[in-house]
Amino acid sequence: MADSQDPIVRALYNYTTCDVSDALCKLKYRNGGFLSGLTMWSPQRQDGPTKIVGPAYTVKYVPLDDPALKHPTHYIDQVPKGAVVFVSCPPRIPNAVYGGLMSTRAQALGAVGSVIDGRFRDVQEQRDLAYPVFARDVGTAPPAELLKVAAVNVPVKLQTDDQDMEIRPGDYLIADVNGVVVLPVELAEQALPLMQKQVEADEKMAVEIKKGMSFVEAGKKFRS
């Protein structure tokens, strides 16, 4: 667990991404905050206890012919301590938009992990750092021939046709072996007690199911 002064971050480390989604579904937030297609690649591939929690620091890549000006400095040098770097890449781009040196710098600045909505590279280098990376896929070529960074710390859209999801600077990102979830900052204090209630109910259900109680009966007893 990262050392955070944010009590919400500290509390969220007690819950899985599934717990967060359950709470957000109860609050009628679409898809329970799940960000589809983003999975763990480092420090292991979809295995192990890795969990990251932190406010989003967003990076927006656009095609070179986009009229937006290129961001004047490298985004990685401004990563806040405790943040989760979220890199947004236009869809159907074969090049990677994130690499090992990015993680080296982010880790040195105290970032807790990176989520790449696109391709990343230097997989073994990432794993040697034991730095958490969640991404859509891998690649080998750098982005410069196709893309530029147009903005940092702006709202970005998840790059998939499956969902219409937005990630805003400061929203909480939670990622583990189940996937990646965005928790809007304004819903965090409402969601946390719902997570605790659900987890306590599910723990009681598990005990009784192992003793022979049916799922339906246990659900009625502990979830209703």
Automatic annotation (TrEMBL):
Write out the entry's keywords from A to Z.
Magnesium, Metal-binding
Which residues does the annotation say bind Mg(2+)? Answer: D122
- GO MF assignments: 4-hydroxy-4-methyl-2-oxoglutarate aldolase activity; metal ion binding; oxaloacetate decarboxylase activity
Q: List the cofactors.
A: Mg(2+)
Q: Superkingdom, according to UniProt?
A: Eukaryota
**Which Pfam families did the record assign?**
RraA-like
CDD domains registered for this protein in UniProt: RraA_family (cd16841)
Q: Which residues does substrate bind?
A: G99, G100, L101, M102, R121
PANTHER family (alphabetical): 4-HYDROXY-4-METHYL-2-OXOGLUTARATE ALDOLASE, 4-HYDROXY-4-METHYL-2-OXOGLUTARATE ALDOLASE 3-RELATED
Name listed for the protein in its UniProt record = Uncharacterized protein
